[in-house]
Amino acid sequence: MYAIVDIAGQQFKVEKDQKVYVHRLDTEVGKKVNFDRVLLIEDGGKVNIGAPAIDGAQVCATVLEHLKGDKVIVFKKKRRKGYQKMNGHRQYLTEIQINEIKAGGAKAAAKKEAAPKAEAKEVAPKAEKVEEPKSEE
Known about the structure:
Layout: E1 2-7, E2 10-15, E3 19-23, E4 32-35, E5 38-43, E6 46-49, E7 57-68, E8 72-78, E9 83-89, E10 92-103, H1 105-122
Antiparallel strand pairs: 1-2, 1-5, 3-10, 4-7, 5-6, 7-10, 8-9
């Protein structure tokens, strides 16, 4: 079973007991966090796709640690102009471990689809206006 979930603006394919590095979360180390924006769930060949997210589905995770990523060197140069600029960047990251994937939205989505169809049948068709021909006098 895996899920595609939106965490801090990025989409990740996650499975149970997987460790993932995401952008820094404002949660203490050791705390549990739930992500509601689950875009897709695959369970034994059955795929459930949200529009855009699956209602009631959640991915539960535990925050393991906060850290900084590898240094990325940004070097700018314009040849023959004497212009050089070097800059570095280290991204703040959070390591999380996926504990559970809850697919509670599959039944709710099926009920929502069935309800609008029943309402559409009850609506009576509109009567058409018939215009009378104008006589020339």
